[in-house]
Amino acid sequence: MTSETVVALSKLISEFKAEILSEWIDHQLKDPARSQSVPEASIRTNSAEFIKLFEVAAAKGNLVDISKPEWEEVQHMLSELSATRAVQGSTPTDTAKFIFSLKQPLFNRLNTAHGQTTSEAAKSVWELSLLLDKLGLHTTEAFQRTRESVIRRQQKEMMEMSTPVIKIWEGVLAVPLIGTLDSARTQIVMEALLQKIVDTGSKIAILDITGVPTVDTQTAQHLMKTVAATRLMGAECIISGIRPQIAQTIVHLGIDINDIVTKATMADAIKEALYRGGWVFERQLDSASISR
Amino acid sequence: MRSAVKMHAEDIGFSKLNQTKIVTTASELGRNVLEHGNGGRVMIEHIKELDRSGLRMIFQDEGPGIDNVEKALVDGYTSKCGLGLGLSGSKRLMDDFELVSQPNNGTTITVTKWT
User: Fold this and answer.
1) Rounded to whole angstroms, how far apart are CA atoms A78 and A10?
2) A43 with A24: CB under 8 angstroms?
3) Where in chain A do CATH 1.10.490.10 domains reside?
4) Is A96's Cβ below 8 Å from some Cβ in B?
5) pLDDT tens per residue, range B67-96
6) B114 forms bridges with which residues in the sheet?
7) Which CATH architecture is the domain A3-159 placed in?
8) Which residue, A184, A253, A183, A190, is CA-closest to A216?
9) What phi and psi values does residue A252 have, to the nearest 5 degrees?
10) ipTM field
11) Which residue among A227, A235, B69, B114 is least crowded, i.e. fewest CB within 10 A of its CB?
12) Residues of chain A with CATH 3.30.750.24
């Protein structure tokens, strides 16, 4: 880019800052596809802030390489804007449009305010367009990064959330498994369960698979490994929540689960566990004595 | 893939049991494609014949292939550390099972379940 163009551009921006800004905000607010997740006030403040930083950066004479230090603040501001909008639930298109919508007001200025020849005007438009494209892409990238970090965090939360080990009685633990049992999940469940066995000195653990959609050979193998590890700790496992379809599928697959105690429902498993622990329960027939 | 297969199986009107069988098979064979075949393709087809309809799944990979198909179909035979029941179990879960494999030329498994 020739220095003349740069000077002309930065002069243009500082000279018509107010006009460009108001036109730009107008343009953004009038966009029929504008998402409602971004309030008008924040569009106004964001735009004003961006123009301010953009003016400062452009005045330093480098309109090509936005990775240079003079563009750092602009980049930083855009990253933050993308991050906020990503969390608010905007689409990447919306966020990129923030930059792309600046094109029209700037180009308008270029065409009207300057008495340039056509080729010069076209060149300025081209340079400016390249610059804004780069900035637009930067917002998309920042947006993506934020989304990814949100997804990673949620994944982790879900992993932890979906594998609670509950003490339901003295010496009895229960693990309600929900979702697909892959190696990573099994590992987490196993670790949590074994640790809880040590902590509570439990003798029986109930693994409930009501919430596991499919039990294939790998899932079965994971379950068996968990049972084996529990045994090594001196505790017993009961697997409960086996649906009729799953029972038949396991048989057809030819998986041998003869040495594992299984029950159809969690209630049965709890009964069995308490029975083994030597607990005896009796229902009081006189209901009046229960309600007192 | 599991949920896609389940959706199709529901559409065709399989019973709950057969849906489970189909999804389990898809899970087994799909994993084989990923783990042994280094990834590949799965095709799901609704098939209609005069007196019956069904679901066909074709699992295709361009992996190393299976040296000894007969041995691979024996219960408990495994080349990794699984249970060795995936292939033979899937065969029992489905109505038709066809395995074509050549060493170094990939594997194609076609399975069909009729309603």
Assistant:
1) 20
2) no
3) 3-159
4) no
5) 777 778 887 777 776 777 888 888 888 988
6) B54
7) Orthogonal Bundle (1.10)
8) A253
9) -65, -35
10) 0.76
11) B69
12) 166-276
Burial of A258 (0-12, 13-18, 19+ CB in 10 A): exposed
Q: Which amino acid is at B76?
A: G
Tell me the C-alpha distance between B15 and B21, whole Å: 10
Helix (H) or strand (E) holding B60: strand B53-61
CATH superfamily, with its number, for domain A166-276: STAS domain (3.30.750.24)
Query: Which amino acid is residue A56, in one-letter code?
Result: V
Burial letters for A261-273: b for 16+ Cβ neighbours within 10 Å, e otherwise?
bbbeebeebbebb
If one counts every other C-beta atom within 10 angstroms of the C-beta of residue B4, the result is 12
* Cα A217 from Cα B25, distance rounded (Å): 10
* Interchain CB distance below 8 Å, B89 and A218: no
**Does the beta carbon of B77 lie under 8 angstroms from any beta carbon of chain A?**
no
Q: Which residues of B touch A245 (CB under 8 A)?
A: 16-17, 19-21
Bridge partner residues of B101 (DSSP):
B107
**With contact defined as beta carbons under 8 Å apart, do A42 and A98 qualify?**
no
Q: Look at chain B and count its residues.
A: 115
pLDDT at A283 (0 to 100): 81
pTM for the structure as a whole: 0.61
Q: Does A209 contact B at CB distance below 8 Å? A: no
Please report where in the chains the tokens 């159809």 appear, as a residue. A264
**Facing residue for B2 by CB, picked from A214, A245, A254:** A214
What domains appear along chain B, each with residue ranges and CATH number? 2-114 (3.30.565.10)
Is A221–B82 a contact, with Cβ atoms under 8 angstroms apart? yes
A95 vs A83: CA distance, rounded Å = 10
Task: Provide, as residue numbers in chain B, all residues whose Cβ is less than 8 Å from the Cβ of A213.
Answer: 2, 23
The reply to whether residue A221 touches residue B31, judged by beta carbons under 8 angstroms, is no
pLDDT digits (tens, 9 = 90+) for A24-74: 888 888 877 776 777 888 888 888 888 888 888 877 777 777 788 888 888
Q: Which residues on A lie below 8 Å from B27 (Cβ)? A: 214, 216, 218
Nearest to A246 among B20, B28, B92 (CB): B20
